Amino acid sequence: MAMPYSPFRLRDRLSMLGYVLSGNRLHQIAFGLFVLLILAALFAPLLVPHDPLATHPQDALTPPSATYWFGTDQLGRDVFSRVLVATRLDMLIAFGAVGLSCVAGSLIGVVLGYFGGLVDTVTSRFVDVLMAFPLFVLAMAMVAALGNSVMNVIYATAIINLPFYIRLARAEVSVRRHLGYVEAARVGGSGHARILLVFLLPNILSPLVVQASVNLGWAVLNAAGLSFLGMGVRPPTPEWGILVAEGARFITSGQWWVFLFPSLALMLAVLCFNLLGDALRDSLDPRSRT
Amino acid sequence: MSRIVWRILSTVPTLAGVLIATFLITRVLPGDPAVFFASNPAMSPEDIERVRAALGLDKSLIDQFWIYLGALRHGDLGLSISTGQPVATEMLTRLPASAELTVFAFLLAIAVSIPLGVAAALKPDSWVDQLCRIIATMGVSVPTFVTGLLLIYLFYYILGVAPEPTGRLDPFMFKPPTVTGFLLIDGPLAGDWATTWAAFKQILLPGLTMAIFALAPLARMTRASMLNVLSSEFIRTARANGLSRRKIVMTYAFRNAMLPVVTSLGMTFSYMLGANVLVEKVFAWPGIGAYAMNSLISLDYAPLQAFMLIMAGIFLAVNLVTDLLAGLVDPRAGLN
């Protein structure tokens, strides 16, 4: 007997995922990449062939070989190990920043859209000011102001992404707050908190999740850009942006492997998140399909 | 008319917020400028106090803000601690480099993306459409600094056709007399074609890097907007009435599809302002972003403050112009 589909049952959810993925080869690849990224983030330190921080001065700047798959850098450190180990830090920054801004931004936005009034006006002005700066420049200034650390890169990236969630959640809630089911809940005696958390938030979750998956790519780009400029993550910690910056010095002398492999890792990660965002949009939010 | 005035006035609160934000952000930055000035060991605590008073750091935060505003009114952006020069003059000498690069890349991106987007929309699922899709996906996935480095490796190191990526002009060449500060305009004005060509070769790779970055959103937007308009009823009517394809596409569809594109032009320009810093770093481009970054490393914050202010100012101006343009393109839209 076939049971009706329920989004709360794991098997149904998995089969739904399989259905969404089966339609599009690119989305399958993206999902595969995503799994690889997570695995690398979790297990990289166990998998790498060399210690990412160990220097081998006699092997400095050797091209890719059987011993050093991606070659070595100026200190003879194994580029492959460094790129792989960096996955964890980059994923930590991306997921941390997006998680923070998604939770904080949607809560703020939901409250603003629901209650409106003076707080809404003032906060919207504040968001306007935030959006009046080129966001990357704002992130730079914030890391400079808060201090040069990984945590501050996460905070800065979270803050520059906040406006998107606030605006999205606010808009979604303000069109729904007078709909029948909300009125019904109110008549039924639900308080504001219950209406917001039980009736409104679950209904606007899909666009928020889509936004979050798109933002993951931005967050990786943003963090890598900051560390490329020497902000946030400090050498010798392996991180993709720093690895690219270190490799950039050897481009004009032809040692391409030092910058190319971390660049590729960066590109693949961002590409993967962007494609996943598209896939999620197609399945969760069919109206905005392009 | 009154709506235009109202739109212009509506930037005032944001501008005020920007001023407060830039002021505050440099106040919380670590490091005391007075101590930096007084890093000479011969200086006593009294000397440090005197420097502090001279810099106005002993006053309350609100007084400092008024002093900051008063100085801004005279175009005074403070002194750079590391060079001792007024930040305003340093910024002015570097602004043309950044502006030339950004405008060059912006025009390049528009010139490629809009025809590409239109062509992709006219023939869905053709090779042009596939190309457009690939560019749109790659453009948002490849970090600007990686694009720049790849271009350098390919065109400078392997092919050897591009000049060394070090700034706007070969150090052995003389700059043409400054009129606009844009080498690509000043060169021809002075009749100095050799310098113009050299400057063009220098700007090509960084310009291309930024253009590739800006291409993606523009092409994607043009394609989506054009597809949307092409499927609308007035196009069907025009087609049914037997108008030529050229007239339908160029006169009716294209003009109506431009509104969202104009809006996204403004957004893209602001993203480019942010990406500028990275591209300037990769190509050793002597612009304001690189200047602000270099000052930041030596804990010199006045340039960063000025940079943020200039960026936000340009951004607000661009948004204003975008909204006014959108109102021009489609009188129903915008301005509300």
UniProtKB/TrEMBL annotation, chain A:
Keyword Metal-binding listed: no
Pfam families the UniProt entry points to: BPD_transp_1, OppC_N
PROSITE patterns hit by this protein: ABC_TM1
ABC transmembrane type-1 domain location: 87-277
Protein's membrane topology: Multi-pass membrane protein
Membrane spanning stretches: 29-48, 91-115, 127-147, 191-210, 256-276
GO biological process: peptide transport; protein transport; transmembrane transport
Entry keywords, A to Z: Cell membrane, Membrane, Peptide transport, Protein transport, Transmembrane, Transmembrane helix, Transport
Subcellular location: Cell membrane
Main localisation: membrane
GO CC annotations on file: plasma membrane
Similarity comment text for this entry: Belongs to the binding-protein-dependent transport system permease family.
Protein name, as recorded: ABC transporter permease
Naturally occurring in which organism (per UniProt): Pseudodonghicola xiamenensis
UniProt lineage: Bacteria, Pseudomonadati, Pseudomonadota, Alphaproteobacteria, Rhodobacterales
From TrEMBL, chain B:
Subcellular localization: Cell membrane
Cross-referenced Pfam families: BPD_transp_1, BPD_transp_1_N
Positions of the ABC transmembrane type-1 domain: 95-322
Molecular function as annotated in GO: dipeptide transmembrane transporter activity
Keywords of this entry: Cell membrane, Membrane, Transmembrane, Transmembrane helix, Transport
Topology relative to the membrane: Multi-pass membrane protein
Transmembrane segments annotated in the record for this chain: 101-122, 134-159, 199-219, 253-273, 306-329
Cellular component GO terms, alphabetical: plasma membrane
Superkingdom field: Bacteria
Gene3D superfamilies: MetI-like
Signal peptide: none
InterPro entries registered for this protein in UniProt: BPD_transp_1_N, MetI-like, MetI-like_sf
Coiled coil: none
Family classification: Belongs to the binding-protein-dependent transport system permease family.
Protein's recorded name: ABC transporter permease
Taxonomic source organism: Pseudodonghicola xiamenensis
